[in-house]
Write a structure and sequence with these properties.
246 residues; alpha/beta; Aminopeptidase; 8 helices
C-alpha cells in the first residue's frame, strides 16, 4: 500500500483501503451537522467520496489503528474519530497512528448498518469485503493494535456502554479493555477465545491473527446522536491511546 504525503498538513499521509465504498458524508444530515468543518475535516470528507481512506500520522515504534464506521448508522464514534484526528494532526507522537474515520462512507452517507446488504462486523473473514480489506491493510502495514469504535442501542447487542475483548489468542486485548474500563467506566465483555460468540467481527479476526484489538461501544439510538455520546466515544478513544502512553 502506497501512502501519499499531504503537504497542507504536517506529518500527514493517506492512502485507500478500497475504491468501491465511497459516499457523500454530507448527505447524512445528523452526522454532517455535528462535524466541525475544519480544513482537515473537509479534506477527509472529500477523500471519502472515492472510497475508504486511511490516514497516517506520527512515526513511532507501535502502529495503532483507530477505526470507526463499520456500521454506518452508528454516528457518535465517527464524529469522535474526526474530532480526535483534528486534535492530533501536527502533534509530536511517540507512536504511529492510523485513522479510518469512515470504514464504508457509502453506508455512513445512507445511515445504514450494512454495506450492500452485508454486515461488515460479521464479514472480516470474507475475502474482499470492506472489513476484510481493512484487515488485509492492518496486516500489510504491520499494525500492532486495533481499536474499533461503535455505538449500540437499547434492545440491541450489547445494549449498554461496553468494551469487547478476548483473552486468547491475543491476551493483551483483555489488558487493553481492562485499562479502558477502569479509566472511563465502560463495562467489560470478555470472551475466553476470540470469535467464540460469532464470526467476522474486525476485533475478533484481528485477535485471531495475533493483533490485540478491542471493540468499544457507547449507548445511542441508531442513526441519531444522544447527549454526551460523542464525548464518551472520544473518552474511550483517548483511553485506548493512553494505554500506549499517547
Amino acid at each position: 500500500m502506497d501512502f501519499v504525503k499531504v503537504n497542507q498538513f504536517d506529518n500527514l499521509e493517506m492512502s485507500y483501503v478500497c475504491d468501491f465504498s465511497g459516499g457523500f458524508i454530507s448527505r447524512n444530515k445528523n452526522l454532517f451537522s455535528r462535524i466541525e468543518l475544519t480544513d482537515l475535516t473537509k479534506f477527509v470528507l472529500e477523500k471519502s467520496v472515492f472510497g475508504t481512506p486511511i490516514f497516517k500520522i506520527g512515526d513511532g515504534d507501535n502502529k495503532i489503528l483507530i477505526l470507526s464506521g463499520i456500521h454506518g448508522n452508528e454516528l457518535p464514534p465517527q464524529i469522535a474519530s474526526v474530532n480526535l484526528f483534528n486534535e492530533l494532526v501536527g502533534c509530536e507522537l511517540s507512536h504511529t497512528l492510523y485513522f479510518i474515520p469512515f470504514a464504508a462512507p457509502k453506508s455512513s452517507m445512507n445511515c445504514e448498518r450494512t454495506f450492500n446488504s452485508m454486515d461488515l462486523n460479521r464479514a472480516a473473514h470474507i475475502k474482499n469485503s470492506v472489513s476484510n480489506l481493512i484487515l488485509q491493510t492492518v496486516l500489510d502495514l504491520g499494525i500492532n493494535f486495533v481499536g474499533d469504535f461503535h455505538s449500540t442501542a437499547h434492545n440491541s447487542n450489547p445494549g449498554f456502554e461496553s468494551i469487547f475483548s478476548s483473552k486468547s489468542p491475543s491476551p493483551e486485548s483483555y489488558l487493553i479493555a481492562n485499562h479502558i474500563s477502569k479509566d472511563v467506566g465502560s463495562e467489560m465483555i470478555s470472551f475466553d477465545f476470540a470469535g467464540a460468540s460469532y464470526k467476522g467481527a474486525v476485533e475478533d479476526v484481528c485477535n485471531l491473527k495475533g493483533i490485540p484489538s478491542v471493540t468499544c461501544e457507547v449507548l445511542c439510538p441508531f442513526g441519531n446522536l444522544a447527549k454526551g455520546t460523542v464525548e464518551t466515544s472520544m473518552s474511550q478513544m483517548k483511553s485506548f491511546l493512553k494505554y500506549f502512553g499517547i
